[in-house]
Fold this protein.
Amino acid sequence: MSTTNAVELRNVVKRFGDIAAVDHVSLEIRDGEFFSLLGPSGCGKTTTLRMIAGFEYPSSGSIVIHGREMATIPPHRRPVNTVFQSYALFPHLTVAQNVAFGLEMQRRPKDEIAARVREALEQVRLSGFADRRPRQLSGGQQQRVALARALINQPEVLLLDEPLGALDQKLRKELQIELKSLQRRVGITFVFVTHDQEEALTMSDRIAVMSQGKVLQIGSPTEIYERPTCRFVADFIGETNFIAGKVIENGANAATIETPDGLRLRGLTPRPVRVGEPAVLSIRPEKALLLAPGDARAGHAFAIPARVELVSYIGSDTRITVRLNDQRTFDVWEQNTLSTLDRDAYWQPGEPAVLVCPPDNALVLTE
Amino acid sequence: MTLNALERERQRRERRTLAALLTPGLLWLILFFALPLVIILVYSFMTNGPRGNIVWQFTLGNYVDLFTRSIYFNAYLRSIWISVLTTVICLVLGYPLALFIVRQPPRWRTVLLFLVLIPFWTNFLVRIYAWQIILANNGLINSALRSLGLPPLTLLNTEGATLLGLVYGELPFMVLPIYAALDRFDFTLMEAAADLGASKRRAFWRVMLPMTMPGVAAGSVLVFIPTIGQFVVSELLGGAKVDYLGNLIQRLFLRSNPPNWPLGSAMAMAMMLVLLALILIYFRTTTEEDR
Ligand SMILES: Nc1ncnc2c1ncn2[C@@H]1O[C@H](COP(=O)(O)OP(=O)(O)OP(=O)(O)O)[C@@H](O)[C@H]1O
Ligand SMILES: [Mg+2]
């Protein structure tokens, strides 16, 4: 594995008027990796991508692509290509002319262009569509033309701004797999913008989670999901239960919190916390245990008596909402590993139960 | 069976509504457009009488005169030439102006468009007279030059003044359609072009200009048509030193003694021929993009 970085952002700030769309972002995107920028709408993903492409220049900080400082390089001289969210295909040109555009700008010989266009269209399975206009194509086909038009230039980095955003769910899933395998095949660094966490988790080697112009955490999909370092990331990625309280005890990499209503819970601490500090315990619904009151494990140190309130059976899982006390409910998801019609195998509303939050499955987070 | 009858009844009603809607417009067009055109066409093949009356005798002589006598044919060519020149200058000035306006924040855009339209608030003739005052030998420009100790320039009553007046008068008709085309243009496409390695200049020629061609074509037609028939500007600013088609037609119909309506009509028809060619080109260049 080479250690060069395809793209480096060093303390990049972008201001529009007095709002900072991108606020001191530092990233190192490795060569050949599938890197995602993930965050809610307006968090600065597009702006970050546009600065790498050269459509915007940072207010401060620097952008380096394969060791070259980009501050003075205009977009048409950068070794990157973009797949735009709206595809931005040229409506007055045919599919083949669209794909050929980049090579034409490099003034390649005509027969080389023709051959490479044919090859690129084959690669995205659009060989029969060379003479159509973009508007005569479906959304998914347009998306593939946009991809071919960018990849034919063999960029050092491919930037993709929510390339699947306009497609329906099923097509989206298909193209996710296609895009990922394409990236493996061509070995080009992909910087992929999305606000869909599932998409980011499925496709990425690493993810940067952004919020309000800042990068909150960078890590592999597993790290981001299993060890979020702050409340925002835990909340944004997947589902979770939050229980707010104060830190009362603090070990090497775990801590205990106490809530105002007297619950005590323990969890791992991805970031150090101080005793007395306000914190939340975050535990994912599939990582908590719901036990019958007589269960041997119900004597666990962090067991809490509960009552089943809502049960929704969704096929693969059953999602149960339990009530801990007047102010507090909690979600537990159980996988339906047994194939049974027996009513007693499922929780019923009103049943008493015991909730266990195993400390190894929970996190204590600040902010 | 009944369904068919109902369908036929529905179609009959639709036809009747359509006819009712179209009749006033059609009558108007026939009365004020087609009919005069036919009259002019007929006149152009008639003979001029000794006292300017029309002698109903078929002749091709008017057209022969037009294309063989240099006074007429030169005016014809001169009109085409100054119209082309006016159109090109309006295009070269108008495109960047429209582009500049379209790139402003929405509030400023409205203000700037308004400024482009403001001249229309004043009568065209009044504005041309204003240009006389500016260009005259003791006009604004020459007074300014004199006060700076520079020699005066002959500006008024030159062909340059005619061209200036025409460009001045027609520029908004170029700016507006191009503005409309640019307003519809998706500027992300310019970023896409840059992203694919096109400099600003190449992106303009390969993407922006082809995509705004309908606006350019519409603007050019709008500028060219009135310019080829104009006679006021060349008279008031050009000093009627050289004849354009419009001046000759006006003279043949109204001023010469005796008048020569058949020859004037032939000239008008010749003018229409140029316009027809132009409009054909216009439709050729735009149908595809407009679809
Ligand atoms: N050209 C601009 N002028 C002013 N403000 C801008 C401009 N571009 C972006 N912004 C602001 O910067 C912030 C970040 O925008 P950006 O487009 O990067 O968000 P995003 O993460 O891509 O959101 P989305 O998921 O909705 O696409 C937003 O508050 C936006 O309003
Ligand atoms: Mg965006």
Observations:
- The pocket of adenosine-5'-triphosphate (ligand 1) is lined by residues A 16, 21, 39, 41-47, 195 (CB under 6 Å).
- Chain A has a mean pLDDT of 93.
